[in-house]
Design brief:
- The protein is mainly alpha-helical and about 300 residues long.
- The chain has one domain.
- It has 13 helices and no strands.
- The longest helix is centred in the first third of the chain and has 28 residues, at about 40-65.
- The protein is globular, with a radius of gyration of 20 Å.
Length: about 300
Amino acid sequence: MIANFFNKTTPVTIFNIVVLLFIYCFISIFPQEFKEFSIPFLVKRIIFFFWLILYLLIVRFIIKKNKLTKDNSYALLLVVIVLGTFPATIFSNTIVFSNILLLLSYRKIYSLRSGINTKLKLFDAAFWIGIATLLYSWSIFYMLLIYLGIIIYQKISLKNLLIPIVGLVTPLLIYFTYNFYYDNLAIFYSRFNYEINLNFEAYNSLKYLIPLLFLVFILLWSFIIVTPKIVLISNNLKFSWNVLIIHLIISMIVIIVAPLKNGSELFYLAFPSAIIITNFLEKSKSKIVKNVILYLFLILSISVYFL
């Protein structure tokens, strides 16, 4: 059964997850874009596929380093399934690259619990968010995650509150200077497009509506079941769980205000939702429930291509 197969992280499970990602990439490209097929087109897509693998590797590193889940492959599997369910996420350059940069920031934020090199981590986290903001302006919302992380991990001090501002401004100032030197300030200002789109008509399509409702339902169920169990236990996961919930809320806000509603914005849900659902699967004693949830995710991820 699928739950047992991915219950441990092994080279075989990782390989199968990469193969699944490749399948999603393949079926999301060729039905719509076969007429554009060419060698340069194929090379570009292959390179992009390796960027997605890099994304998975960073996700795996963050989870393992900060012990956000146990030693299993559920989170990676769910990340890939979420991406496959909403194929617009897979080849949206801006969204993918901004998420990779944000992962480098999350890596620092979640590791604040260790208390080691706190100031450097705060600078690095904000620095990566600054670069991500230049790619996708609403990424700046994740600065809230840094400050709430400071509060949750009890790292409050004047320096710690000021350092993220310096980290954020640094890449912005460098990019401003570059454009100022070449008299291209219009390009710099165009990076900060905070247009808000509250038109959700695109989500009325069955290919978005059904998997979104299922994902939201499982997320709420996971939150309700798992949160009391984690909060009552005095360990590091309790603090990281609070950060994770805030992370999910911020991601939802970014999706709500996103100027383009074509499904690619749902990429921001992949990381926090996968970890929250994984914690539920780990704590569920019913193998039937685990298998049903994972199989339903897989079935939905395939069925959207026929809706």
